[in-house]
Amino acid sequence: MSDSAMANRPDGDRADRAARTGVGFGLSGKLLVLTILFVLLAEVLIFVPSLANFRRSWLADRASAASLVASALDLPSLDAPGEDLMRAELLERLGALELAVMTPQGRRMIEAPQIGPLRVDIDIAFDNETAFGLIREAFRSLFAEGRLLRIHGMPEAGDVQVEIVIREAPLREAMWTYARNIGLLSIAISLITAVLVYVSLNWLFVRPMRRLDAAMARFARAPEEASNIVRPSGRRDELGRAERQLSDMQAEIRAMLGERRRLAELGLAVSKINHDLRNLLASAQLLSDRLASVPDPTVQRLAPRMIHAIDRAVSFCEATLGYGRIGTREPERRLVDLKRLAEDAGEFAGLAGEGGPVLRLSVAPGTMIHADPDQLFRVLLNLLRNARQAMEPTDRPDGGHAVEIAHAREDGTAVITISDTGPGIPEALRARLFEPFHAAGGKGSAGLGLAIAADLVRAHGGAIALAATGPEGTRFEIRLPDPGRAASVTGPTDPLSATLSGQEE
Questions:
Q1: pTM
Q2: Where are the beta strands (DSSP E) in 104-152?
Q3: Which pick of 14, 368, 380, 387 has the fewest CB atoms within 10 Å?
Q4: How far lies 335's CA from each of 165, 369, 371, 376, 495, in Å?
């Protein structure tokens, strides 16, 4: 298992524990409880007006029955002697204690025998009721005991109007029966709805979320395994989009971890070969020193350049190849002749113009900037090599390619531009141009040149950017803090002697 996987193992264990402990009362259980509560709440909101309407209907039925009886009976005959039993039976069937009938001819009362004067607690008239009043009286009827109600004012009675006095106890009992039935029905509806919603949501959402959770836990344990990347189910809803985005993110993380691992392996390999390579270069230095003593004019002319090249190779062995250690040495700033440094970098980059790209300098002689000469040389060399590699496989109708280095100073900042006539940088590479192993220099490029250049420029407190690119060429722009000629000189200004002195130990 890789170091990254081991580092992520505690998080994966926590994810597993959370997944296991969340099954008992996780999202599914919460959905079940919430569904029951919401359905019960809806039933309660419906139950209150339903109960008030039940009470009104019950009272209206009693009043309508009394009106029908009053219209059908011969009321004067009920006043005859010996009709007490008939009156009592009539009131019993109506469930009333008293019946009053108002006609254009007058008012007639039918009372139950052997009952004294009645004390009515509430008068109920159907023509002046309000919704809130009905609800209030419904709850009073549920909890009140022993009250008498007088019902009157039914508009459907026509010319005959009826008043009826009844006990509230039968109404209260009927309302409690209705409430109990509604309650049981509401509970049944809540449970059935909750189960249906639970099963549906669990199938549609909770199970896919658990699969995502398990996939993320597996990826956290071993992100380098391609089999641990989420495979989208093809859904077209929000969960499907989440699966696709998670899969893309995991693939990017896996690729990034692979790059970091390769960088670590590269650093380890460089550290192993660094010692042997330095020994070989040390032997070459000894031979070059002996060669420099040969009195031949050609040897005397070429020997300093060869010594210079070997010294730079030693420096590259310790710094350029050891990419992971670039930031260990702070820049040793001094005044540097930019034109001479650019000429050396162009020669090392192979821009001699012998049948290939040429170097053009738009830098005034004696232009000095404040920088580390060796690091600035490496920046220019990497950019020039990338430009040459980009231009070599292409042809120009005017005969040849060229790279131009220009300099300007803006408010204490040295601006160095490197322009080429290559085919431009592809769009796909521009976003990660200065990241390691994203080659923009053409076939055979390792993809480290621009990353090294960017790190070295940032170490100077400057910035490097892609200023322009296209079919006509590419232009990079380097901005370095530069106080100008007044800067203090901390070492030799000649590039060759500066580099040599930087190698002494």
A1: 0.44
A2: 106-111, 122-125, 148-152
A3: 14
A4: 116, 5, 7, 12, 10
